[in-house]
Structure formats: structure tokens, C-alpha cells
Amino acid sequence: MQQHMLTQKEKSEQRPISGTGIGLRSPHVDEILINQPRIPWLELLADNHMAAGGIIPAQLAAICECYPVTFHSVGLSLGSVDPLDLDYLGKLKQLMRKHNVCWLSEHLCFTSVDGFHSHDLLPVPYSEESLLHMANRITEVQDYLGERILVENVSSYMKFAETDMDEVEFISEVAAQADCALLIDVNNIYVNHLNQDIDPVSYIKRLPFERIKEVHLAGYEQKEGFALDAHNHPVSDTVWDLYQLLVQHIPDVPSLIEWDNDIPPLARLIEEADKADLIKQQFSEGLNYAVS
Amino acid sequence: MPLAEIEKNFMRSLIEPYRAADVLLSQLEIVGDLSPEKQLAIYRGNINGAHEIVLAQVYPACKNILGEEYFNQLCLLYRIQFPSVNPDLNVYGQHFHEFIKSCIDKHKELWDFNYLPDLVLLEWYWNATYFDEDDSSFDFSRLTEVSAEQQHAMVFCLRKSVSLISSIYPIIDIWKSNRAEVSCIQSFNMPEKKLNYCIYRDDFEVKLKALSQIEFDLLTAINEKKTLGDLSEEFGTNLQSVLYQFVQQGWICGIGLHGVSDVR
Hints:
The complex is a heterodimer. Chain A is about 40% helix and about 15% strand. By secondary structure, chain A is of the alpha/beta class. Chain B is mostly helical. Chain B is elongated, with a radius of gyration of 24 Å. The chains are: A alpha/beta, B mainly alpha. The interface between A and B is large, with 48 and 47 residues.
């Protein structure tokens, strides 16, 4: 594993992921390629760039030529009891190698089981069994890819009776056992606070900061009786406050603005990214960062 | 309850939303204002919404014709009948054509929409062609590797991004009028004969071309891996010029020998 870590570090040194990037979605691809606005890095939803032919692979190659890029995937189904989808993982690895993608992040959830795919992030119970299973699967993925991945806390609308620990304990232990990095989505913490009454401040304070390599920011939608992690609004004021609390501890960790539905002009996303950078600059003189 | 049981019950309650989900619900606790039923309902709602969006993107004309509410009901029934078995959402909806066909047989209100299965198939091909694998160009030097004795057993390979469709309905006119969210024209003239089309990708752009009956039959025969010997017998003197035209168009991208898997 150590030897592979070096490869990832070298990649990051060549094309550092620093500052606040943007989750690139299809409505902005042309603008990004034509105008090449000053954005420090882009995160692509890997699942949207796996088409076998046509314009999608060509766009991916062009984007990766112009910007440092990371992959965010939703199909690995890390928590699933099904065997790991090696076909999917193989495609991810091939694309990452081909385009010098800096790293891959996935979610601490399952999306498929019994061969069926929900295409939604389904929570797992925070039990000892899930913990061991998730950690083993992440290790399997990392061994296959030959590099460390980042795993993200998800928004959850479900509480299982089968619970041995709280969410922070679960993700911290998974990261420790699998020796993986963490991607912390601040909006997801807040949505879980609204729906499940977790204490977001205590949550953030208890995170293993040394493992956090990326932070996500997004907006939620208030539905009837619950908050939905819809990624269709600006980042809320409370999430900005929680972000400030988090980046005090990790000012040089890169952040990312995610906006997936009712997508506004790119300039609006850049405004959100600038705001995140301003907050971080209070705590850090430099924004240089590389995975170590 | 073991993790495997929890996950399988959860998934089953999502892909069969009308079935009781007692086992899963018994594993959930009330949290905040969310009862176990509400927790499950949120996931069911998310999944319905996501699948509706995908199908609406692939089948915009079908959605416009049927109206959003009816289309969304069909989306739910489709998801129950054909749950997604692939992590790639780009291939979700590939059975919508057969599903619509069966719906027309079952639902009286759809009897006036006999053209829908052909229209839906056209929309599917249009969508799939966009993502289909790239093939290399026809390599004429491969022809020199085929001996005179082998020529009759030679087969041709159609580009993966080429699809053929024929219909007795004016599906192209209906499609063009309903693709965008504009008021659709409700009456079309029936064509005098069956119309044939090829859907293909030219560089990155998906295109559609009307085909003569001979062109359509020949492309169909090529797709069925009929040998050059069989094609010569079936199409006689027309064969050479039409074949050459298909190569020029980029629709034929390779050759091989009958029964040999490497066809390029």
C-alpha cells in the first residue's frame, strides 16, 4: 500500500488540488472548455463520464487537460453485501489512470444489492457488522486501485434499531480500520441534524481531522416535515457557520461546491467557491495542499 | 438482524413499493418527526423522482404526448417491472419499448396510441447512439487478407452506433413535433408505405437518415451476419454500390469470416 500512496502523492504534487473547486455538471461543460475560467480544480461525477464512446470521453479528456480533476462516484456501493462490481471499478481505475485523476471519493452507504440498483445513497446501520464490512470493502477497493480513496458521510433519513455507535464514531472507525481518507460534507451533517437531531457542533469537533482530505458544501431543500439534501439551493447560513467551525481545524484542506439540481450559471457557483475561500483564508496563509 | 437481511429488505421495499414493508419497518426507530413509514417514503420518493427524470430525458416526446402525470405513473410501473440492474443510468429505460407495447394491450386509454412503441424505440436509439462505443474506421487493407476462396464466407460488421428502425406510422414527424416542450400537433398523415430509417452518429452528432427498402434490407442482413455469398444471392447487382456507400458513410466498420468471432 505504501508504494501506491507515493504514486497518488506524486500525482497531487504535479497537479495540486487546493482551494475551493466546483463539482462540474453537464450544463457547464462547454463554458468550462471554451472560457476556461479560473477555478482551482474540478470534481467530476465519475458515473456521468463512463460512456463507451461519443462526446463524453472526448469531453473528459479535454477537461482533464485543462484542470486538476478528482472523481466522485456513486456506484461502488461500498456498504453492499453483494460482491464488489469489478467491472465498474475496473472502468474507474482505467479512467483515473488515463486522465491522471487525482483521487476518487465515494459514499459510506450502499446503492445496490441482489443485483438491483437504487441509484440513491441508502444508509447502512451503524453496527459493528456494518463497520467491519465497510472497512473490508474499502480496503478491497484501495488494493485494487493501488491508492487511498476518500469516503463521504451521507445524509440519512432513516434510523435503524440495529445501532451500536453514532455516525461520527462509525465513520472515524471505518477510516481508521480501512486506512482511508475522509470527505466531510457539511451540508449532510446539517441535514442529519435537522432530520435526526444530531448535534452538528459536537459532530464536527469529534472528527479525526488528520484524515479529512476534502470538504463538500451544498444546499438543501426544506420539504414538508423534513430537510432534503437536494443540492438545489445556495449553501445555507448555518452550513457556512459549521464550515467555519470545521476549517478552523483544517484550513488547507480543499473544499468543493456541489449544485446538482436547478443548476444556476457557473458564475454563481464561483461566487460560492470564493466565499468558501474567504472563510478559509482567515485561518490559513497559504492554500497549498497535497495528499500525503 | 444481519446486515444482508436489512439491505435486501430495504431494496425490496424500494423496488416493490406497493408491497408491505413490515420487516424493514420493524427494524427502524422513530427519529425526530419521522416515523418509520415516513423514512421509507422519503427514499421511495427520491427513487421515483430520479427514475422519472431519467426516463423523461430519454423519452421526451412520449412524455409530451401522454402528459406528465400519466407518464410518471408509467415510469413507476416500469421501475417495478424492470428494476435497474446496472450502475450506469444511461442504460436505464432500454425495455421501455416492450413495456409500452404491453401497456397498450392492457390499458384501453392507450388504444389510440398504437404508434407509441415505434416512437419509443426511436427515442431509445437516439439516446443510446449518443453513448455507444466508438468503432475504428473501415480498414481496407483487411480485404487483402481474405483469399478468393474465403470471399463467399466474408461477413461485415456494422458500427455499434448504427441502429435501424422501420414503422408504418409517421413517427419522425410525431417525434419532431413533440421532442421539445411545445404544443404538439395532434394529426399526421399516415405514410403510404412502411418507412425505414438509420440512426447513427457522425463524429459526436446523432443523425437520422431515411433508407430505401433495399438499403434497409441490406443493413438488416449485414446486422444478421449474413455472408457475402448470401448477400450476393439476395441483392444481386445492387450489392456492390450500396455496400460501398455504407462503407463511405462509416456504417460498416469491419469485416470477418463467418463463424470467426473477430469481426473487424
